[in-house]
Amino acid sequence: MGSRSSAYLYASAVVCLVLSWRSGPVLGGDIVHHDDVAPKRPGCENNFVLVKVPTWVDGVEDIEYVGVGARFGPTLESKEKHANHTRIIIADPPDCCNMPKNKVPLPFDRYQLLFRKFCGCLCDYHLYLFFFFHLKLKGEVLLVHRGNCSFTTKANIAQRAGATAILIINNHTELFKMVCEANETDVSIEIPSVMLPQDAGASLEQLITSSTVSVQLYSPQRPLVDVAEVFLWLMAVGTILCASYWSAHSSREAAIELDKLLKDGSDDLVQTQGVGISGVVEISTMSAVLFVVVASCFLIMLYKLMSYWFIEVLVVLFCIGGIEGLQTCLVALLSCFRWFGRAGQSFIELPLVGAVSYLTLAVSPFCIAFAVVWAVFRTVSFAWIGQDILGIALIVTVLQIVRIPNLKVGTVLLSCAFLYDIFWVFVSKRWFHESVMIVVARGDRSGEDGIPMLLKIPRMFDPWGGYSIIGFGDIILPGLVVVFSLRYDWLEKKTIKEGYFLWAMIAYGLGLLVTYVALNLMDGHGQPALLYIVPFTLGTFLTLGKQRGDLKRLWTRGEPERPCPHVQLHPPQ
């Protein structure tokens, strides 16, 4: 940080932007979609699962599409090697509301002779049609259009015609959940039905008219645990660990300086009264309560204004914060080496900025270039590495600058965030008909991969791909309490076993671990991480403080009392 004023300005801006953003940790694309509006009943009780539809054109592997399975019909194969390659044809009529009338390959009189030979009489024309289409569609998939009749009617007709599956093209670009109508009784459907988006259906129709196209239909399951979740857990825990020791070290150094002034009776002591550590912003109880209001307003703004241009604005803001965070971390790290110590302690006055160290000037071009390169190439497959580096540096810097003075403020802050998280992930569906938090995290309306205020790692062994992600707030908010615990331990000169930091750190790690367990049990649906992290972290801290008799001091002061060494206390005569 260049000067105290710039540090305060930077901290205030970052708190407004970062702490207002919250997110469930993992949103790699749900493969199971539950629906309470269309309840299950016998014959219509499947979960809505995403379905992979890889294609082969004239025997050569081509594009892979993604559809969604219907509420009715059999469950799809989960393993690719067990799914059959099946030829796909276009239904005639396209809506498949009547028996298909695809072109007959042999003259009608030829079939009459066959029927007379095997049946002994002239069979009915409808029997002929059924017999022909049963032979022609045996082992093939029928591609039909949505509309003019129910989904189950289309599936029943395709089944009677001999199709082994039916692909229904939606009339919109998104997917639609296919359910059974309330008055339908013929739901004993034995072929799978899959909905495709409009663009995928149009592409398939174009290929089928000029080539022989075959498809596979299968719905692979996610692994119980992906390596990405393990690394993301380590990143979150490691970030808080580093920030805790940095903050505790700064606090201890400031306390040592204050003790020296007290012992010497220096005149500089007057100037330090009422002033905290340079560049540090302490959260008050009122600001902790206002957090919910500010964060909610910011989230609604993201939800309503979510678009390509708004994401670009957030990318710029993230780059500014990432540059400052990376610069602060690099300067602090390099200052530990004696080769750079002198450059870190030599300052130059710059207009509008104030005093800036030579070391800061040296690392700034690198930090700016790093952020610019990430912003330009953020859509490439490995851009998550740069985003995580900038994000971790920003989080560590925020945890170094923003502090809670006592456990009371920490309790109010986490309790408000706990309720905020639950409301915007779960309760918001009642008013907005979708989870506002999850929509914003995914960036569903922006045309991009979501907002950049996330740590993300690609799911390496997940057949559906996607990313495991965790919002900055899920690290920063509980991290403020964990950082406070280590500062308190060091100032109280407690050992690791006697202190609170070890238990707070373990509680946070367990809370995040339970979040991932709940995530996998819910088939990949985004989870409000603070729903699990807050009870673990805050509950452990409060319970341990109560048992040890330190709760009153933790709740009010948050640090040990420092009696003046010049005042001698004499026992009564």
UniProtKB/TrEMBL annotation:
Keywords associated with the record: Endosome, Glycoprotein, Hydrolase, Membrane, Protease, Signal, Transmembrane, Transmembrane helix
Organism domain of life: Eukaryota
Residues in the signal sequence: 1-28
GO cellular component, one term: endosome membrane
GO biological process: membrane protein proteolysis
Topology of this chain in the membrane: Multi-pass membrane protein
Entry annotated with the keyword Secreted: no
TM ranges: 230-248, 283-303, 309-340, 352-376, 382-402, 409-427, 464-488, 500-519, 525-544
Entries under Pfam families matching the protein: PA (PF02225), Peptidase_A22B (PF04258)
A GO term, aspect molecular function: aspartic endopeptidase activity, intramembrane cleaving
Known function: Intramembrane-cleaving aspartic protease (I-CLiP) that cleaves type II membrane signal peptides in the hydrophobic plane of the membrane.
Name of this chain's protein: PA domain-containing protein
Lineage, uppermost ranks: Eukaryota, Viridiplantae, Streptophyta, Embryophyta, Tracheophyta
